[in-house]
Amino acid sequence: MPPQPGGFVASGFKKNELNVAYEPQGLFGGNPLYRQVGGPAAIYKAEGSSQWRAHTEFTETAGMKKMAHAKFFKDDNRLVGALSAKSWHGGKWHNIRVTFTALTAESKRRAEADAEAARKAALEADKIAHAQATGELRYGFNAAGFTHHTPLDVRYEPRGTFDGLPLYRQTGCGPAAMCK
């Protein structure tokens, strides 16, 4: 049976990473594969299975192993309306009710914008982590190891220069400053 045209928006899963917009992305094991718009989550049926599965970080390997954060039964490939499901959360399966609504142009645009914002935030976090790991301080740094009577073990961000040297100021409202 062909995939549902246009996709859908899911809600009701215990894992918020699954409550997103999905669109058809071909087949997996001969069944429709629905991928998160701009993200890693997917809803799929493994080959030889009658059970739909949802995974927050879908890969072919996870799919072949029938791994899932949620699962449910549906006779056809049209995921619309409310369905009973099971969701893995806190180390056990929970009975839940999930709802699938048609993906509109507006909900797809919002999903794409959310995915782009998340991608940019992740890139910025990676830049900061790399800068701190390599000693590059243009993104700031986290200070540690000051004596117990000085409240200087905090995050510092670049704030210009002082006498030609970089100036770092404590984030937030603190008065601490440190020159390199």
Structure notes:
With 180 residues, this protein is an alpha+beta fold. Helices cover 19% and strands 39% of the residues. The chain has helices at residues 60-64, 105-134; strands at residues 8-11, 21-28, 31-36, 42-45, 51-55, 70-73, 81-89, 92-102, 141-142, 155-162, 165-170, 177-179. The strands form two sheets. Strands 1-2-3-4-5-6-7-8 form an eight-stranded antiparallel β-barrel. The longest helix is centred in the middle third of the chain and has 30 residues, at 105-134. The chain is elongated, with a radius of gyration of 23 Å. The N and C termini lie far apart (65 Å).
Features:
single chain, 180 residues, alpha+beta, eight-stranded antiparallel barrel, four-stranded antiparallel β-sheet, 19% helix, 39% strand, elongated
